[in-house]
């Protein structure tokens, strides 16, 4: 069990109770026996009206959960998972998605805050030997305890999920399995007699998978550029440039987060030329350019080519590379970066090897 240093959001017992009741009812359905994690349905947040996309995990019998991927970006991340675009699903996907989740785990997987709430409510272990655990992970943040509005959202979502399971078992075709852009949508309807119920609609959404991020030009320091050019150092080899997410959480803010780590690695030798921590609010494309400029000033030689993992960083760095006579390219597979990031994650989890 992890030690937490940031207080969890305050949520009243009156809000927690219906959430745990909905979670226990959902667990009793054992939907993961019949439904794969690629069967999706949509619902509207009863507080904001925003649309989330939901799936059920547990078909392999290893991890049991219900998740909401918030917004069109959440759906896009989910689709990218199915296409195998994330090299390290545990550390990368968690940081780029906006997720709200109900997981069903053993008591050892709970935090003390979870145990306090369950004790107040008198929650017992279900027939599966599992307890519900609720977490929120907005984009760029580490999974953390849910807020009161997220409790409302999850309660409604789990109630809808129970209905979705029943309908799927009767007729899977109502989930448009042959049309990945069409979704069964649950829209909340408030009633004085029934509280919040729902109506069923059909929702269409087709992720563009286009990077709509605007390139913010990096301002060149002409004096520093002149000094690098004046040194007239040899150019050889290829340097790979990318960012990876730090495989742990930092607890110095209102909620935990995982910063990016910018990496510059020589492709032939796998030698790490430089690293830089990038905070969530930083423009990481600019931070990479700043670090590259710093490395260029002290390196014994320059590369002939810089290879980036994404087009926006490449375009941001292009004026810097052009000023120094370097080629740039974008490649999906960066073997040196992949090896170094894997070693970094292993060292964090298992400790350094001596």
List strands and helices in order, with pairings.
Layout: H1 13-29, E1 41-44, E2 51-57, E3 64-70, H2 71-82, H3 89-96, E4 99-105, H4 112-121, E5 131-137, H5 148-170, E6 182-191, E7 195-204, H6 222-231, E8 238-245, E9 260-266, E10 272-278, H7 284-298, E11 305-308, H8 311-323, E12 327-330, H9 335-350
Parallel strand pairs: 1-6, 8-11, 11-12
Antiparallel strand pairs: 1-2, 2-3, 3-4, 4-5, 6-7, 8-9, 9-10
Helix pairs in contact: 1-5, 7-8
Number of domains: 2
**Residue share in β-strands:** 15-25%
Distance between the termini: 27 Å
Mean pLDDT: 87
Supply database-style keywords.
354 residues, Nucleotidyltransferase, domain 5, 12 strands, five-stranded mixed β-sheet, seven-stranded mixed β-sheet, alpha+beta, single chain, 2 domains
Detailed description of the structure:
This protein is α+β, with helices and mostly antiparallel strands and 354 residues long. It has two domains: 13-204, no CATH class; 222-350, Ribonuclease H-like superfamily/Ribonuclease H (Nucleotidyltransferase, domain 5), CATH 3.30.420. It is 35% helix and 23% strand. It is built from nine helices and twelve strands. It has helices at residues 13-29, 71-82, 89-96, 112-121, 148-170, 222-231, 284-298, 311-323, 335-350; strands at residues 41-44, 51-57, 64-70, 99-105, 131-137, 182-191, 195-204, 238-245, 260-266, 272-278, 305-308, 327-330.
């Amino acid at each position: 069990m992890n030690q937490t240093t940031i207080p969890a959001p305050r949520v009243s017992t009156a809000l927690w109770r219906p959430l745990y009741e909905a979670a226990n009812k959902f667990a009793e359905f054992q939907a993961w026996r019949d439904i794969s994690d690629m069967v999706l349905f949509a619902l509207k947040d009863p507080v904001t009206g925003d649309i989330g996309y939901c799936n059920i995990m547990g078909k392999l019998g290893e991890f049991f959960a219900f998740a909401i991927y918030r917004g069109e970006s959440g759906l896009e991340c989910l689709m990218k998972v199915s296409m195998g675009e994330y090299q390290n699903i545990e550390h990368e996907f968690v940081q780029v998605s906006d997720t709200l989740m109900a997981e069903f785990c053993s008591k050892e997987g709970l935090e003390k805050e979870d145990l306090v709430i369950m004790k107040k409510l008198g929650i017992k272990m279900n027939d599966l030997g599992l307890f519900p655990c609720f977490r929120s992970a907005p984009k760029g943040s580490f999974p953390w305890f849910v807020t009161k509005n997220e409790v409302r959202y999850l309660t409604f979502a789990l109630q809808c999920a129970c209905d979705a399971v029943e309908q799927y078992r009767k007729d899977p075709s109502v989930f448009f399995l042959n049309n990945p852009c069409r979704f069964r949508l649950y829209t909340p309807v408030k009633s004085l007699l029934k509280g919040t119920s729902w109506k069923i609609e059909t929702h269409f959404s087709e992720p563009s998978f286009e990077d709509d991020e605007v390139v913010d030009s990096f301002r060149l320091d002409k004096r520093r550029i002149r000094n690098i050019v004046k040194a007239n150092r040899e150019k050889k080899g290829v340097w790979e440039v990318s960012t990876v997410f730090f495989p742990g959480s930092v607890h110095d803010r209102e909620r935990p987060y995982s910063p990016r780590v910018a990496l510059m690695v020589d492709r032939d030798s796998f030698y790490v030329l430089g690293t830089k921590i990038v905070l969530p609010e930083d423009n990481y494309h600019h931070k990479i350019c700043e670090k590259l400029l710093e490395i260029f000033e002290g390196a014994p030689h320059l590369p002939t080519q810089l290879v980036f993992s994404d087009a926006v960083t490449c375009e941001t760095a292009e004026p810097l590379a052009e000023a120094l006579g370097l080629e740039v390219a974008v490649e999906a597979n960066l073997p040196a970066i992949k090896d170094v990031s894997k070693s970094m994650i292993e060292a964090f989890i298992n400790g350094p090897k001596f």
